[in-house]
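Predict the 3D structure for this chain.
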Amino acid sequence: MDDSTAPAFRALADPSRRLLLDRLFERDGQTLGELTGHLPDMTRFGVMRHLDVLETAGLITTRREGRAKRHFLNPVPIRLIHDRWISKYAAPVLGAMTALKGHLEAPPMAASLDDFDHVYSIYINAAPERVWQAITDGDETVQYYYGTRVLSDWQRGSHIRYDYPDGTVAADGEVLAIDPPKRLEMTFLARWDPELEAEGPVRQVWELERAENATKLTVSTVGLKAGSRMANEFSNGMVFIVSGLKSHVEGVRVAVAAR
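Done. Predicted structure below.
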C-alpha cells in the first residue's frame, strides 16, 4: 500500500467511522451534535475522536459558520484509492457491480430543494504557485478537467470559459474575486446540457493554503439545490476533477473522461 492511500484505508476500517461518512453522504454539513445523534451509544468525545481521524485522513473537511463547526464529506481520497487500486485492474466489472448494488439498495432521492454546499479538500505535493498554474492554465486543464481548456485573463469581473477541443463551450462564468495564488471565487454555468443550463449558475471558491511542502486545496461549490441534477453532477464531477488535478500536478498518469 502506498503512503498516500494508507490513512484513508485505516480510517475506513472502523464501522463507526463508515457510519458517520454514510450520514454525511445523506446530508452534508452536519455539526458534531447532529453526528453524535447517529451514534447514541457513544459519547460526544468518542464521536469527536472518530471525526478527527476522518479529517486527518482527508475523508471529511470542516468549516466554521458562526459558532457552529460543520463537517463535509470529502470523497477525493476514496477516488484516489479507486485510481490506485481498482481502476487499472477491474474497473469495468466492479463499476457495473457497484452501480447495480447501489441502484438496488439506494433509498429514494430526497425531494427537498434546500440550498447546500459541497466542500472538498485535498493535499497536493506541490507549491501553491504550481497548483494555481494548473487551475488557471488551459494547456493544463485539458489534462484533467474533462478535456476542456480554460480561457480567461483572470481579472475581477472577467469572463471564464471552458472549451471542448472542437471549440464549443462546456461551461462559463465570471471571476468574482481573485488573489493569486491563494483564492479564486467565480460563478459557473454548465452549458453541456440544456436542462443543467436552465438551473442557472452556482458559485465556486478555490482556496489554496501552503502546508509545509504541500498545498491544501479546498473547493467549495455554493448554492446547490438538494435533489437537483446540478447537485448530482457536481457531487460526482468535482471529485474526478480535484483528484485528477492532484494526479496531474504530481505527475501520475490518469485517463481523462469525456462528458
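Residues 89-113 have pLDDT under 50 and may be disordered.
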